[in-house]
Structure prediction request, 427 residues.
Amino acid sequence: MLKEDMNAVIQMLKESVSSYHTVLAAERRLVEDGFQKLQMQEVWNLKNEGKYYIIHRDSSLFAFTVGRDLNREIPFRIAAAHTDFPGLYIKAAPQLNRHGYQQLNVEVYGGPILNTWLDRPLSAAGRVAVRSTNVMKPDIHIVDLKEPFCTIPNLAIHMNSKVNQGVELNRQIDLLPVAGLGSPSDQENGFVSWLADRMQVEPEDILDFDLYLYCTDEPAFVGMGREFLSASHLDNTAGVMSVLDGIRGEISDSGVNVAALFDNEEVGSHTAQGAGSALFSNLLRKICRSLPSPVSEDVLYDSMMLSVDAAHGVHPNHPEKADLVLQPVPGKGFCIKEACSQSYQTDSSVIAVIQQICDRENIPYQKYANRSDITGGSTLGGIASAFLPVAIVDIGVPLLAMHSIRELAGEADLKAISDFIYAFYRA
Prediction:
């Protein structure tokens, strides 16, 4: 990879324990590379060869670079990924004291494979709002509790004899984590007090929080040749990493390169920090107005965007779930995702651009389509296309066990997609 080796990829995965932490990890890398932070409500005076970024609502980040020579054509080259991943969210009234146990009250975020969350060491990370002197601006803390303080125990096979025949988990009953021992009298020593102690604030000053559970097991290389990376939230930290790797490279001769890291893709993107927000189109138009020589927003019609997310590798135990011909294998290159339904943004003229860049740079790629009788998930590209007059195409690394608490990717594909995005920004 161009700037990040695989150890750095693993470090990014370890840091990105929530969408808020993904943004912080991205920001650290951008600042190290000389990017300057901006605010949307300020006047911008952009410069040739300038490198800039903004953060929106703590969990979305947008970075862009201005080319050396803006007297030439000025298309936008955009690559977008998402900062969130499926999992379990701690409810506002988190404490449950039942049958001698202290438990957490949680709900499901996105579409995780639920049974993979059982019997794992779990911690929590996210955002906590704390009482302040200005009621309109509470103190916001980005928190990673780090230690594995809870787990969701399976029901023993002796009490659930059909478990190996497949048992549906009830989201309200079967997914409540155990976080300690206690009784109803231990309410004052519950989760909020425990959280306050670690944050060094008073429990009554914690007003609300957005906290997500995550697995504390570390990423690992597996396979007899260490060909695979096994880790949590490869969907879509791998995409975030490849986009960052590309935008942090050398400045292009012309044009504006943009990296967009949206939140809430796993729940539909229709939020203030998601791809369905008006924010991104506002951002691109503000860049047009703020360049050294302002340009018309019409340049967007000549621009191109990559929607970078995960793809499905063919499962060796279930090849019948794949298309009859298009069966991507991890390690053989990143995937160009196609669907005539436009659940993936499919445009042959744009796909041809990708193929030509890959052929020129000797970057391996594969094509992916769902089985005709299986509906695939949507991506942020399809959401953003309703707001942006740019050509969009979906790409991604082929995974096994997508949306499991541990996903599996080919190491070579992580390099391939990073190399491609780097080349795309400079084509």
